[in-house]
Design a protein that fits this description.
The chain has 188 residues and is mostly helical. It has one domain: Phosphatidic acid phosphatase type 2/haloperoxidase (Vanadium-containing Chloroperoxidase, domain 1). It has nine helices and no strands. Keywords: Membrane, Transmembrane, Transmembrane helix. It comes from Candidatus Wolfebacteria bacterium GW2011_GWA2_47_9b. This is PAP2 (Type 2 phosphatidic acid phosphatase) family protein. Pfam families: PAP2.
Length: 188
């Protein structure tokens, strides 16, 4: 642990276990919000009228999530096992969590892959997803299950995988979509 991690962790976790409502919100954001975000994303994909856009958004998210959480994060866990804050500092977390390796955050590596495909489907919802992921990140530090650098690492991996999938596997589709958007904007 370094001073950056410790100072931000102490600031966020220092107010834990003082107010029931704040602890409850942290538990909701850290544990349950991701399920709702995933379910709503699937609903948004199903509601999308453009068949190609629907298939593209869903495949984009699934491939990015597999690469980010299923491959990259697991490889890092195999080679680098960082203790979680509640283990390293011998404190009680706000919610139950296994003492598995902490870096990178698996939650961030998985759920942050939703941000950009959701923004592709609907920009307002994409911004809300980015804010929700930020809330989830703060809640996981508050809950003593992650260090700040774990969160940053998970987000960087997720966004890297998301952009990588878009530009490597769907480059032709992405370029075609951008051309259509430019044509629509010039017509207006």
């Amino acid at each position: 642990m370094n001073s950056f991690d410790l100072s931000i962790f102490n600031f966020l976790h220092g107010i834990a276990d003082r107010w029931f409502l704040l602890d409850w919100l942290a538990i909701f954001f850290a544990v349950y919000l991701g399920y709702l975000m995933t379910a709503f994303f699937v609903v948004m994909v199903i509601k999308e009228k453009d068949r190609k856009k629907r298939a593209y958004a869903f495949a984009w998210w699934v491939l990015a999530a597999i690469i980010s959480r299923g491959i990259v994060a697991e490889v890092i866990y195999f080679f680098y096992q960082r203790l979680r804050p509640f283990v390293a500092l011998n404190i009680e977390p706000v919610f139950n969590h296994a003492a598995t390796p902490s870096f990178p955050s698996a939650h961030m590596a998985f759920y942050a892959t939703l941000i950009i495909p959701m923004w592709y489907l609907d920009r307002k919802w994409g911004i809300l997803y980015a804010a929700s992921i930020s809330g989830m990140a703060v809640a996981r530090i508050y809950g003593a299950v992650h260090w700040p650098l774990d969160i940053i690492g998970g987000i960087v991996i997720a966004l890297g995988a998301t952009y990588g999938v878009r530009y490597m596997l769907f480059r032709e589709v992405a370029l075609h979509t951008e051309v259509e958007v430019i044509k629509e904007e010039t017509i207006k």
